[in-house]
Specification:
The chain is α/β, with parallel strands linked by helices. Helices cover 45% and strands 14% of the residues. Strands 2-1-3-4 form a four-stranded parallel beta sheet, with helices on both faces.
C-alpha cells in the first residue's frame, strides 16, 4: 500500500452521464479505485449539454490531495474551458494539468496509474500512451 498522496483525476465531458460513466468504468478497472480521487465534471449546472467552469473547478478542488490533478476532457470546448481555467492561475489547484489523451482509455490509464502510487508525470504519460492502443 502506497503512503504517497494520490494524483487526482477530473473527467470533463459535455455530458454529465458520460463523465460519470467513464469515472465509474475507470474506478472499476482500477480495482475499485477507492484510493484514487476521481471526479466527473459533465454538462452544465442546469443538467444540460455543455461545459461549466464552475463544475470543473469544484471537481478539481474535490480531488486535490496535494499530488497534482490530471484533467482529461472529451471535446473542443471542454478543452478550451480547462485551458482558460489554467490560464486564470487561481481557478484550479496548484499542480493541475490538462492531459492530452483519449477520454475513455486515457481516463482508465490515469486512474489505474494513480492507484499504483505514481506521480503526476507518470499518470500523464500513461494517459497519453493510450493514443497508441490498437483495436484492430
Amino acid at each position: 500500500m502506497s503512503t504517497q498522496k494520490p494524483v487526482g483525476v477530473v473527467l470533463v465531458s459535455h455530458s454529465a452521464q458520460v463523465a460519470e460513466a467513464v469515472a465509474e468504468l475507470a474506478r472499476g478497472l482500477a480495482g475499485g479505485g477507492a484510493a484514487v480521487p476521481v471526479a466527473a465534471a459533465g454538462g452544465t449546472e442546469g443538467g444540460g449539454l455543455g461545459t461549466s467552469a464552475e463544475l470543473i473547478s469544484a471537481a478539481a478542488a474535490s480531488v486535490d490531495r496535494g499530488a497534482g490533478v490530471a484533467v482529461l476532457a472529451d471535446l473542443g470546448s471542454a478543452v478550451l474551458t480547462v485551458k482558460a481555467l489554467l490560464a486564470e492561475g487561481d481557478e484550479l489547484p496548484d499542480g493541475s494539468r490538462l492531459v492530452d489523451a483519449p477520454f475513455v482509455e486515457g481516463a482508465v490509464a490515469a486512474v489505474v496509474t494513480s492507484a499504483a502510487g505514481a506521480d503526476l508525470d507518470a499518470v500523464e504519460a500513461a494517459a497519453q500512451e493510450a493514443y497508441t492502443y490498437r483495436k484492430a
